[in-house]
Design goal:
Layout (H helix, E strand, L loop, with lengths): L22 E2 L10 E6 L4 E6 L5 E5 L6 H32 L13 E3 L5 E3 H15 L19
Antiparallel strand pairs: 1-2, 2-3, 3-4, 5-6
């Protein structure tokens, strides 16, 4: 008697590992495949450089670091720098709006008078304020009419 015959299974050949790109589009000059990534795993550094505009970036690398990882880190670093600059510009704009321009003298310019509250306004604004005060004096505070019944619609 003999042994059973073993069936051979086809393993499907083996999957080929898809290579990730090592050249990318530059964020600054927008040239396709101008950014090249080189990783030195022995020294633990990864370098990214654009051949067209000369932009470069360097970061740390370990044994699992891939070129696409370095490119993603570069994008994140560029975004962080841009966000920082926008915040600084916004803060400077807010500070400029808060601080009025320094006056050379304490006297108001011609055609402007100092109001009672201490602010400055034009003569037209002062006249408008006076008109508003006069109108407020004419306002009826109590509008109760004694003995007069107010009717709304047909009250049958």
């Amino acid at each position: 008697m003999g042994k059973r015959k073993k069936s051979t299974r086809n393993t499907g050949g083996g999957r080929k590992k898809e290579k990730l790109p090592t050249q990318f589009q530059c964020l600054f000059c927008n040239h396709e495949t101008s950014v090249q990534v080189k990783i030195d795993k022995k020294s633990g550094t990864a370098k990214l450089k654009c051949r067209v505009c000369g932009q470069d970036y360097e970061s740390t690398a370990h044994k699992l670091t891939e070129p696409v990882d370095v490119y993603s880190e570069w994008i994140d670093a560029c975004d962080a720098v841009q966000k920082e600059q926008e915040e600084e510009e916004a803060a400077a704009a807010r500070a400029a709006r808060r601080r009025p321009a320094a006056a050379t003298s304490s006297a108001p310019p011609a055609g402007v008078q100092r109001s009672v509250e201490g602010g400055y306004g034009t003569q037209a604004a002062a006249a408008k304020n006076q008109y508003a005060e006069d109108e407020a004096d004419d306002f009826v505070v109590n509008d109760d009419s004694e003995g007069v019944e107010m009717g709304y619609g047909d009250d049958d």
